Automatic annotation (TrEMBL):
Component of the exocyst complex involved in the docking of exocytic vesicles with fusion sites on the plasma membrane. The keyword Protein transport applies. One of its GO terms (molecular function) is small GTPase binding. The gene is EXOC8. It comes from Vulpes vulpes. Gene3D superfamilies: Exo84p, C-terminal helical domain, Exo84p, N-terminal helical domain, Pleckstrin-homology domain (PH domain)/Phosphotyrosine-binding domain (PTB). This is Exocyst complex component 8.
Length: 726
């Protein structure tokens, strides 16, 4: 009873929610006024939620059911469309066959009709029989099921139409329809078996033509339709009868080096027909080719001149030489494929069969290549040119940046190749490069900006240079053998794309005031990716140097100013005291740092315990200067040579001038000796290390650094003396 009350309450709630005048705000207000407390509201909420879930399930069930019905309906429509298409072709065949009946039969047919009319109504059945007889003469094409032999018909043209009608039921064999002189001889259903274990494989349908055998597999989901499986030329095919061995019977084997296939016919009669017609067709094909070879080998005699004496109806006046008339050569445009060419082009464009449309245009151009241009040809070309314009517009739209940019450069290959075949190579190149520029720009813009600059630069370089490499390879594939001007256009495009990359690179690295070490690592990553383009013969290193030189100069200048300011600040607080590192670990760490800076003899400047016989200012200056040099060499390229050298000289001069000034001003002998020891470390250890490292990184010595060291005002004296001359 409680369940019944619950169901009735749910039904009443559903009707209330489904009513046309339902207002949610008013409903909630009434509900809150009528409820006794929070528990009632929770229960009502659960009922509404259960109702919502039930409604969702019903909706899903209805959608699924409607979807299944839609699929079934679409399948039935497809079947109906196929049958209507077949019916249309059958009617066309009937009409063509009736039109091919000789005109000489018409008087006899008229006489027979008159006799039938005079004899009375009881002879009416004979007229119908006559129509049936004519219909039997016209209906020469075989049925699609079972097996049938096209042994009679209205000539080769009718057989060709029969082949076209049947092969339109086979998917993937359009190239067969374009073979001249090919017609259907025999066809029928077969079952294929495995050669080793005689296990049934699949149902197939065989189409025997006058020069080949087509095997098509049966499509169970599409009635009366097949899919292309294999095509075997008859001159390389051997037929072997397989002896019956129940339950394996009515079989024959086809041998095609190096493979073989076994088929089973429906019964013994159809098997015998297959064997006979295969042998007959092979024999006829070999005989035809033998005759062709004999005709080709036979010598051709001079053309015979027809004598006027053989024509008794010529007038004697025609003996006089007549003025030759120049007749305009006619072009045969009556062929079916030419008549239907404009409509076929419209269909190909509508179905986005660009290759098929260009194939038709090539076929027409090849046919009219050496022929004159009378008015009919000009009219046909005008119609075709309009379709070419429409096709070009569609291909241009395919390459426009408004289309989806997914799929990479290969997605544009189809439209580009067809534009090139249409003679629009320059336009194809321009549109291809414009499409790829939009794709690269979109990829860079969608790249997520990470907190770590180096991580973002790694991703940026991977996205950009991978896209550039793929674009270059696709460009080389699509435009191979075309005008070399396209390659110049690609180089210009690559430089423009590199500018887009450098804008994003500089904005993240240099505009954000990253440290010189971070900037150096980022530039190093960009150079490494750029050098990978050398694998395809594309060197853009000089472009990235030219685009980055201004930003790198600014970074070097900025970091130089930071070092100079820090050095001046330490110089202002210099007390010229030895360093006490307090712990052996700190001393060991300093030794490792100086060793990494290139100072190999730092041991001689260390004292007892944890003392270092150098001032903190000189040690800090050494580490900072060598760090600056190492990072700057990562950024180095020839355009930055003087900028880097001048920055180093300015930094070194600040420390050298401070030491020289301290030597002149200091009066305490001990401090003066300590200052001289620091000056000796600068001139004899640090400056040679800077010169050597600069020469290693740049490839040539720096004369300015040598002059700076040689122009030292520190005068060496006898080590035993306690005085010096400054």
């Amino acid at each position: 009873m409680a369940m019944a009350m619950s169901d009735s309450g749910a039904s009443r709630l559903r009707r209330q929610l489904e009513s046309g005048g339902f207002e949610a705000r008013l409903y909630v207000k009434q509900l809150s006024q009528q409820s006794d407390g929070d528990r009632d509201l929770q229960e009502h909420r659960q009922r509404i939620q259960a109702l919502a879930e039930e409604t969702a399930q019903n909706l899903k069930r209805n959608v699924y059911q409607n979807y299944r019905q839609f699929i079934e309906t679409a399948r039935e429509i497809s079947y109906l469309e196929s049958e209507m298409y077949q019916l249309s072709h059958l009617l066309t065949e009937q009409k063509s066959s009736l039109e091919s009946i000789p005109l000489t039969l018409l008087p006899a047919a008229a006489a027979a009709a008159g006799a039938a009319a005079a004899s009375g109504g009881e002879e009416g059945g004979g007229g119908a029989g006559g129509r049936d007889h004519l219909r039997g003469q016209a209906g020469f094409f075989p049925a699609p099921g079972g097996a049938s032999r096209d042994s009679s018909g209205p000539g080769e043209e009718g057989k060709q139409r029969t082949l076209t009608t049947l092969l339109e039921k086979v998917e993937g064999c359009r190239h067969l329809l374009e073979t001249p002189g090919q017609y259907l001889v025999y066809n029928g259903d077969l079952v294929e078996y495995e050669a080793d274990h005689m296990a049934q494989l699949q149902r197939v349908h065989g189409f025997l033509m006058n020069d080949c055998l087509l095997v098509a597999t049966w499509l169970p989901q599409r009635r009366g339709m097949y899919r292309y499986n294999a095509l075997y030329p008859l001159d390389g095919l051997a037929v072997v009868n397989v002896k019956d061995n129940p339950p394996m019977k009515d079989m024959f084997k086809l041998l095609m080096f190096p493979e073989s296939r076994i088929f089973q016919a429906e019964n013994a009669k159809i098997k015998r027909e297959w064997l006979e017609v295969l042998e007959e067709t092979k024999r006829a094909l070999s005989e035809k080719r033998r005759r062709e070879q004999e005709e080709a080998a036979a010598p051709r005699g001079p053309p015979q001149v027809t004598s006027k004496a053989g024509n008794p109806f010529e007038d004697e006046e025609e003996d006089e030489p007549a003025t030759p008339e120049v007749e305009e050569e006619k072009v045969d445009l009556s062929m079916e494929w030419i008549q239907e060419l404009p409509e076929d082009l419209d269909v190909c464009i509508a179905q986005r069969d660009f290759e098929g449309a260009v194939d038709l245009l090539d076929k027409l151009n090849h046919y009219l290549e050496d022929k004159p241009s009378p008015p009919p040809v000009k009219e046909l070309r005008a119609k075709v040119d309009e379709r070419v314009r429409q096709l070009t517009e569609v291909l241009v739209f395919e390459l426009s940046p408004d289309r989806s940019l997914r799929g990479g450069p290969k997605a544009t290959r189809r439209a580009v190749s067809q534009l090139i075949r249409l003679g629009q190579c320059t336009k194809a190149c321009e549109l291809f490069l414009r499409n790829r520029a939009a794709a690269v720009h979109t990829a860079i813009r969608q790249l997520r900006i990470e907190g770590a600059t180096l991580l973002y630069i790694h991703k940026l370089c991977h996205v950009f240079f991978t896209s550039l490499l793929e674009t270059a390879r696709e460009f080389e594939t699509d435009f191979a053998g075309t005008d070399s001007g396209c390659y110049s256009a690609f180089v210009v495009w690559a430089r423009s794309a590199m500018g887009m990359f450098v804008d994003a690179f500089s904005k993240q690295v240099f505009d954000s005031k990253e440290s010189l070490s971070t900037a150096a690592e980022c530039v190093k990553v960009a150079k490494e990716h750029c050098q990978q383009l050398g694998d395809i013969g594309l060197d853009l290193t000089f472009i990235i140097h030219a685009l980055l030189v201004k930003d790198i100069q600014g970074a070097l200048h900025s970091y130089k100013e930071i070092i100079i300011e820090a050095t001046k600040h330490r110089n202002s607080e210099e007390m010229w005291r030895r360093m006490n590192l307090m712990t052996p670990e700190a001393l060991g760490k300093l030794k490792e740092e100086m060793k990494s800076c290139g100072v190999r003899n730092f041991e001689q400047y260390t004292g007892d315990d944890c003392w270092v016989n150098l001032s903190y200012t000189v040690v800090a200056f050494t580490k900072q200067t060598m760090g600056f040099l190492e990072e700057a060499l990562k950024l180095y390229f020839p355009e930055l040579h003087m900028v880097l050298l001048e920055s180093l000289v300015e930094i070194i001069l600040v420390a050298v001038q401070h030491v020289d000034y301290s030597l002149r001003c200091e009066q305490d002998p001990e401090k003066k000796a300590f200052i001289r020891q620091n000056a000796s470390f600068l001139y004899e250890t640090v400056l040679p290390v800077v010169e050597k490292r600069f020469e290693e990184g740049v490839g040539k010595p720096a004369k300015q650094l040598q002059d700076l060291r040689n122009a030292s005002r520190l005068i060496r004296v006898n080590p035993e003396s306690t005085t010096s001359v400054v």
